[in-house]
Amino acid sequence: MGNILLGINQALTWSMAINAKIDLASPDQRGLAVGIDEAFGYTGVAVGAWLTGVIAGQWSLRPEPFYFLGLVVVLAFLISIFLIKETVQYAQAEGDDDHHDANLPFNEVLEHATYGDRTLFAAAQASHIENFVDTLFWIAVPLYLVSQGLGIAAVGVVIGVHSAMYFLQIATGGLADRIGPRPPVIAGMFIAGVLGMVLVDGYLPWAVLAGVSGLGMALLYPNLMTVPERCGLPDVALGGDGHLPDVAGLRLRRRRGPDRTLDGVR
């Protein structure tokens, strides 16, 4: 049940936070915008991993860490209600500039975003691998480290180091704006693997490799997320409410000029 609720949270809150940053950014700064969102989001994840590890090490695995998590949930809920502002008007303004109307059926957008466009299809497969690595770090790696005798608090630090490297997305996200998403995605995929964790032994080597893997993820996350934005539906603008159906966590938008194409990426 906890994983189901987490999945719903990711599909709604995290995805919409990214969309909001894209709404606010100009076309040539959307990689940077996604990088900023991911950097601060995963900094929170890193701090949470470290703090819950400390709490669990000091007391126990349950229920004490869940008291902290409950406080975070309440605080986030209040911030969402009273501080977060709607950004749909910026998406609507962009749609109005294009002078098109596109209320496309969801199945057409889904087809284009999955198997209908080879660039988006490749990006989707890369995202599956990326999230598989992310899942390994949150499930398999902690279990492996505990089985090797590492304490709960130390495991929290190793996982926290991995997530802390995601803050580099504040810099790596802009790479897609300057050189295109393909080079950072290839580099990130190469160094994000976690198999090296089983080839070394000791707290420090594990922490170093966790950081290297985190750097790979920092290259992957924001640059993969900009692919749907840069590979939108040809000759299609935003729909009646300014949005196309949200596919793969990002709204697909009409290609408009060089910043909307993937020349050199295919």
Topology readout:
Blueprint: H1 2-24, H2 30-58, H3 64-82, H4 88-98, H5 106-116, H6 118-138, H7 140-147, H8 152-164, H9 169-172, H10 175-179, H11 182-191, H12 203-230, E1 246-247, E2 250-251
Antiparallel strand pairs: 1-2
Q: Given the structure, what is the number of helices?
A: 12
By secondary-structure content and strand pairing, the structural class works out as mainly alpha
Radius of gyration (Å): 20 Å
Secondary structure tally: strands = 2
Beta fraction? under 5%
Question: What overall form do the CA principal axes indicate?
Answer: globular
Can you tell me the number of structural domains? 1
Distance between the termini: 39 Å
**Largest beta sheet: what is the strand line-up?**
1-2
- Describe the largest sheet: 2 strands, antiparallel
Helix content: 55-70%
Task: Please mark out the parts with pLDDT under 50 across 5 or more consecutive residues, or reply none.
Answer: 234-266
Mean pLDDT: 78
Elements, N to C (H/E)? HHHHHHHHHHHHEE
